[in-house]
């Protein structure tokens, strides 16, 4: 007990009082000084930069080459457009942190013979014969045509000797979890990473590479992502990479797994799937999951618009459960939809479905671009913190619309008739070599719009949104940041031109 403090004489008390007074005065002074500084700084931020300032700050790369509207409208004429400014210098191509290339990745795809004819179409979408390496692992032989553009087909080893006691799951989980070891045993040369996926997983291979290039393949890495479903993650594990979304294992770690996996599997006969078996072995090796949110398990039903319209600021690596969700382009079937999305992937894989947010200041519209996929236009001002949150256009894994079901924030689909977004899906896209610019034509998805009493201008008249963007393959070598977009002047009220690209200094998504 500190008795001295209690028995302090009155003189000490008064000096304590006066020192408290001094303390208060000092703090007040600091507060006044600090807040005046804050106000001053805030003013500076709020003050819009004079336009001359902007143009001097603008570097060549940032300036819109489409200031002249007649030039934009004529893009389809394929004439060399008159450019008033000199063409921008090519972007210096920054070295990757690592020199990993596509040839260093071995894919191991888990497939089953009974779904093969349907599912192989998903594999064909992303597989690059002669470039991507790896194999598809099946339970038994299937007939395939030559030159189908598919990976080598292998038959998995016999797992009938392994124990499997889970009542809900299927024994094939054993076979599928061994795909890692079996792919390693193929003995391919010069492999740095093993990437596992299902037959209904679609990879954006450049982005697989971009993500893996951040890590040293000589270390032990287990990279992937969780389920969208909070309940699934509780039931399985938040520490597990979901197999359908795909996951990557570095070479030395795959070597370790290969040595112990068959013993490890026998210790967990009660587990459900293949991916939880992998995670159980990872836990024995003490290697945690490195999360990369671009891998998508998509344990949801319905429309992916909410998720693909507000993707986290990270490269899109994979899509899964494409048989379960609705076609991503409503006018096309599932496979056609993905082929269509891949037209944009081919032009700028790094930016595929990356979001940008801007406002039409004259018409009071909020605009959210999911590059290469869809533009959404809303009446009124919706803040970026709302727009970057996925809307629940989908149902959870139990086919219910329950907002507590997800492992991330979502927002409801608005019921207000005036707040329903107008959707412009990517219709056609082409690359203008002269300007080094991708020109995407997005057409309004004609659906009945509910009656809205607001007197403000409606996007109903707007039929086409033309999105202009320069390919930016090195964007992920910088710190993650959402692209900026800007509404360009347009003469016709049925068209809107939007520029998408790297934000200028001081550029803010604000109305
Ligand atoms: C397109 O170009 C033609 C000439 O090539 C021109 O007459 C026409 O006005 C242009 N269109 C627009 C919308 O400016
Ligand atoms: C726009 O470009 C056209 C040629 O493409 C040119 O004739 C016209 O003068 C330009 N307009 C402006 C405002 O620069
Ligand atoms: C797998 O092995 C078991 C016994 O070890 C055998 O009975 C079965 O026929 C084998 N299956 C295949 C497909 O070879």
UniProtKB/TrEMBL annotation:
- Record key words, sorted: Membrane, Transmembrane, Transmembrane helix
Q: TM segments?
A: 20-40
- Highest taxon of source: Eukaryota
**InterPro entries in alphabetical order:** DUF604
Q: Which Pfam families match?
A: DUF604
Please identify the protein, giving its name as recorded: Glycoprotein-N-acetylgalactosamine 3-beta-galactosyltransferase 1-like
The species this protein belongs to is Coffea arabica (Arabian coffee)
Its encoding gene is what? LOC113709643
């Amino acid at each position: 007990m500190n008795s001295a403090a209690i028995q302090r004489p009155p003189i000490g008390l008064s000096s304590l009082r006066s020192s408290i007074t001094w303390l208060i005065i000092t703090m007040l002074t600091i507060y006044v000084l600090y807040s005046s500084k804050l106000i001053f700084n805030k003013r500076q931020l709020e003050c819009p930069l004079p336009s001359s300032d902007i143009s001097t700050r603008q570097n060549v790369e940032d300036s819109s080459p489409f200031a002249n509207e007649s030039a934009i409208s004529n893009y389809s004429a394929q004439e060399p457009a008159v450019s008033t400014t000199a063409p921008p210098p090519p972007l210096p191509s920054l070295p990757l942190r690592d020199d990993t290339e596509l040839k260093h990745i071995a894919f191991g795809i888990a497939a089953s013979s009974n779904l093969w004819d349907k599912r192989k179409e998903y594999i064909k979408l992303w597989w690059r014969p002669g470039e991507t390496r790896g194999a598809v692992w099946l339970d038994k032989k299937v007939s395939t045509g030559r030159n189908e553009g598919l990976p080598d087909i292998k038959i998995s080893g016999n797992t009938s000797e392994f124990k499997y006691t889970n009542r809900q799951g299927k024994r094939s989980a054993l076979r599928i979890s061994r795909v890692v070891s079996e792919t390693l045993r193929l003995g391919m040369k010069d492999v740095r990473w093993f990437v596992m996926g299902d037959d209904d997983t679609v990879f954006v291979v450049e982005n697989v590479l971009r993500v893996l290039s951040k890590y040293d393949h000589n270390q032990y890495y287990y990279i992937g992502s969780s389920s969208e479903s909070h309940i699934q993650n509780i039931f399985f594990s938040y520490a597990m990479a979901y197999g359908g979304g795909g996951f990557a294992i570095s070479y030395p770690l795959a070597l370790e797994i290969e040595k112990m996996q068959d013993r490890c599997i026998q210790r967990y006969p009660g587990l459900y799937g293949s991916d939880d078996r992998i995670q159980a072995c990872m836990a024995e090796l003490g290697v945690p999951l490195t999360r990369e949110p671009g891998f998508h398990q998509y344990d949801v039903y319905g429309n992916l618009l909410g998720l693909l319209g507000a993707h986290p600021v990270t490269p899109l690596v994979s899509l899964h459960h494409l048989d379960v969700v609705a076609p991503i382009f409503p006018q096309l079937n599932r496979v056609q939809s993905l082929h269509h999305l891949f037209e944009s992937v081919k032009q700028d894989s790094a930016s595929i479905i990356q979001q940008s947010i801007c406002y039409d200041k004259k018409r009071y519209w909020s605009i959210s671009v999911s590059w290469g996929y869809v533009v959404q236009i809303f009446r009124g001002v919706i803040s970026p913190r709302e727009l970057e949150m996925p809307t629940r256009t989908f149902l959870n894994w139990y086919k219910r619309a329950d907002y507590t079901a997800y492992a991330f924030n979502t927002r409801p689909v608005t019921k207000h008739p005036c707040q329903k977004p107008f959707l412009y899906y990517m219709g056609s896209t082409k690359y203008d070599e002269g300007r080094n610019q991708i020109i995407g034509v997005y057409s309004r998805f004609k659906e009945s719009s509910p009656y809205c009493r607001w007197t403000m201008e409606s996007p109903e008249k707007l039929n086409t949104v033309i999105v202009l963007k320069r390919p930016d393959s090195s964007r992920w070598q910088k710190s993650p940041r959402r692209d900026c977009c800007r509404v360009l002047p347009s003469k016709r009220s049925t068209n809107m031109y939007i520029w998408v690209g790297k934000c200028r200094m001081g550029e803010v998504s604000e109305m």
